[in-house]
Amino acid sequence: MTATLSADAMKRAAAQAALDHVAHGMRLGLGTGSTAAHFVDLLGARVRDGLEVVGVPTSERTRLQAEGLGIKLSTLDETPELDLTIDGADEFDASLRLIKGGGGALLREKIVAAASMRMFVIADATKEVGTLGAFPLPVEIDRFGARSTRLHIERVVRGLGLIGTITQRLSAPDTPYVTDGGHFILDCAFGAIDAPEALSERLYAIPGVVDHGLFIGLATAIFIAGAGGVRIIGDVTGGPA
C-alpha cells in the first residue's frame, strides 16, 4: 500500500508541476490515464478558484471527469488549434519519445497532441527507460479484416528483427476491447525497440492499422516526479522539435 501511495503521490507532483505552466485563457488538451486524471483534478480546483480555460478531452472517460469538475470543454472541430496538451505516458526515453495507449485512447491522444503547440508529459520516474519497448506497444486496428491486419503486422516486425507476442486486448474474457472510435487494440510485446522511427513508419503503411502508440516528435517537455522532486527534460517554452 505504501508503494502504491508513493507512486500516486509522485504522479500528482508531476501533474502539479505541469499545472504551474497553465495560464488564463489557454486551450488545453486533456489526457487520459491515471496520471492525467490527477492533472484534471488539480485543474478543476484551479477552475473553481477562477482560472478560465477551455479543455479538449482525449477520451470519454476524461470528458466525464472534466465535466464533473466544471471545466469548460470543447472539441477539435470547434477549437482546432490548442496551446498545450498535458498527458501521461506508459514509458519514455531521453529523446522524448513515448509509448502511450495503455488506457486505450492512443488515437485521440495523438490527434489532440498534434493539434497543440506544445505537449507536456507527466510521469513518475518508473516510466523512464533507456530503450522503448519494456511496455507492450499498443496498435489500434480497424475491426474489418483484423486477422489479416495482424498477419501484416507480424511480417513487418519480423523484417525489423523484432520478436515477441501480439495479443488482442480484451475488456472481459472472450470480449475484445473496443476503443472510443470503435476499433480493436493489439498489444505488441516486442521487447527493446531499437529503431522506433522505422517501426512507426512501417506500421503506418499497413492498411488496417489506424494508429500506434509510438509518439515521436510530439512531446516538448517531460515532467518526471521521483523521490527527490520533479525534474524536467525538454523545453517548456517551445513547440515540437
Can you give a write-up of this model?
The protein is an alpha/beta fold and 241 residues long. It folds into two domains: 145 residues, Rossmann fold (3-Layer(aba) Sandwich), CATH 3.40.50.1360; 72 residues, 2-Layer Sandwich (Alpha-Beta Plaits). The chain contains six helices and 15 strands. A six-stranded mixed beta sheet has the order 2-1-3-6-14-15. It has a four-stranded antiparallel beta sheet with strand order 8-11-7-12, covered by helices on one side. Strand 4 and strand 5 form a beta hairpin. Helix 1 packs across helix 2. The protein starts with a helix and ends in a 7-residue tail after the last strand. InterPro entries: NagB/RpiA_transferase-like, Ribose-5P_isomerase, Ribose5P_isomerase_typA_subgr, Ribose5P_isomerase_type_A. Catalyzes the reversible conversion of ribose-5-phosphate to ribulose 5-phosphate. It holds the Pfam family Rib_5-P_isom_A. This is Ribose-5-phosphate isomerase A. GO terms for molecular function: ribose-5-phosphate isomerase activity.
